[in-house]
Amino acid sequence: MRTLLITGPGGSGRTTVAAATALAAARAGTRVLLLGTDRTDTLGAVLGTPVGAAPVEVAEGLTARRVDAGEDFRADLAALQDRAASALGLLGASRLDPEQFGPLPGAEELSVLRALRDAALSRAYDLLVVDLPPAERALALFALPEDLRRALGRLLPPERQAARALRPVLGRLAGVPMPAEWLYGTAARWDTELAAVEAVLADRDTTVRLVAEPGPAGAEAVRTAGLGLALRGLRTDVLVADRVLPEDVGDGWLAGPVAQQRKTLDEWRQTYDVRPVAHLGRDPRGPDDLTALAVPGVPAAPGASASAASASAASASGASDATAGPAVAEWPVTGLPHSRISSSGGTPTADDGVLVWHIPLPGARREELDLIRHGDEIAVTAGPFRRTVPLPSVLRRCTVDGAALREGELRIRFRPDPRLWPRTP
Fold first, then answer.
1. Co-location of 86 and 202 in the same domain
2. What pTM value is reported for the model?
């Protein structure tokens, strides 16, 4: 299944573009699932058909549904109490009635991630279109699986899991049931589910489509969003310039906004494949207006089967290694002045000199960048975003020798540590 994640600044029309994109793909013969993530039914207002937690057929080939964080939270709370029944009994705690509680902070984000994973595993559709929250929240959502998995790995590292074998002995010595088994089991289950979400985001059939209005505010929002997406290693297929005003406005009051619009579009075209969508002069409502928008289509994934994302997510969901960390980013390492070395291979010697790790960060500014190395990991801060990734194996025996921002790319220099690297005779 191809997955298209649509986001942009708040109020930019991303929900309208998501609905129009899904409708156009369905009319082209693609089986489409349109997933909404807003608490209110903004999708239903645009489509002209109410959309809830249950899938509803909006048009031929187009099914829509909306994430229900409240229902997911109540189901999770009931399941957690069932798994922890022995521990709750030991503490004398009363069971909670899930119907009396609304979702806690963070439950909405986890519901969206779960819905994304489940939809990607489905074989009933060819294309998944996700109407994500505004870009700032969407980028935090993209970071959540990796950050949670790292936290789980720190809290329950592999060496501590050896204590699971002592659980029966400890239980007899203490005279009470030990909750360790369900604790480790829950952590392993969460790790597996988060790994499946990471697999969907990392799949080559998953792309992000940005939506923004061309203008000063939209330009800054796109720069920030593009920086966050690059740091996460997510691919952007097109930038939809929404609500574009006609050029032939004469010298009236619209001449100023049109000039700003033209300048922003020219700047965007230097980095993105920009697809303008004309302003209809009204808020689009219903299939006819969505068709009139003429949004860009969704091409077939190059060199990938239709079920690649499903297979990737399914592989992750069946993984048994609950302590595996995040995958190394696909950022190349080069040797200066010698041959290019991939981030996953190559065994240069200390005589090869300086190695450079290239991290694409289009739109980054020097004053908003920061680097901190922690053992075999490095934390990269770019503007409001931060990501900690493991160093490629070729760099773990090196010391950081400096960094520079060149042509939208952060280049971190490493020098082989002669105490750890072999020297050629």
1. yes
2. 0.81
pLDDT for the residue 342: 41
Helix (H) or strand (E) holding 332: none
Residue 246: asked if its preceding bond is cis (omega within 30°), the reply is no
Regarding whether 406 and 312 lie in a shared domain, the answer is no
Range of the domain at 340: 333-416
Q: How many CB atoms lie within 10 A of CB 48?
A: 14
Q: Tokens 């392993």 map to which residue?
A: 188
User: CA of 299: how far to CAs of 30, 280, 304, in Å?
Assistant: 11, 25, 12
277 found inside a domain: yes
Can you tell me the distance from the alpha carbon of 133 to that of 15, in angstroms, rounded to the nearest whole number? 9
Pick the last residue of a domain from 317, 343, 369. Answer: 317
pLDDT in the model for residue 338? 43
Domain count, the chain: 2
Residue 153 pLDDT greater than 60, yes or no: yes
Please answer whether residues 33 and 128 qualify as being in contact, where contact means their C-beta atoms are separated by less than 8 angstroms: yes
Q: Could you tell me if 37 and 133 lie in one domain?
A: yes
Statement: residue 84 has pLDDT above 90: no
In the block, tokens 């902070």 appear at: 105
DSSP state of 45: H
Of 268 and 188, the one with more pLDDT: 268
Tokens of 87: 């521990």
3-state secondary structure of 415: strand
The tokens of 218 are what?
């939209």
Tokens of 62: 């187009």
CA distance 40 to 24: 24
Kindly list the strands in the beta sheet with 32-36, ordered across the sheet, starting from the edge strand earlier in the chain.
56-59, 62-66, 32-36, 127-131, 2-7, 206-212, 236-244, 274-278
Q: In DSSP terms, which residues pair with 382 in a beta bridge? A: 369, 385
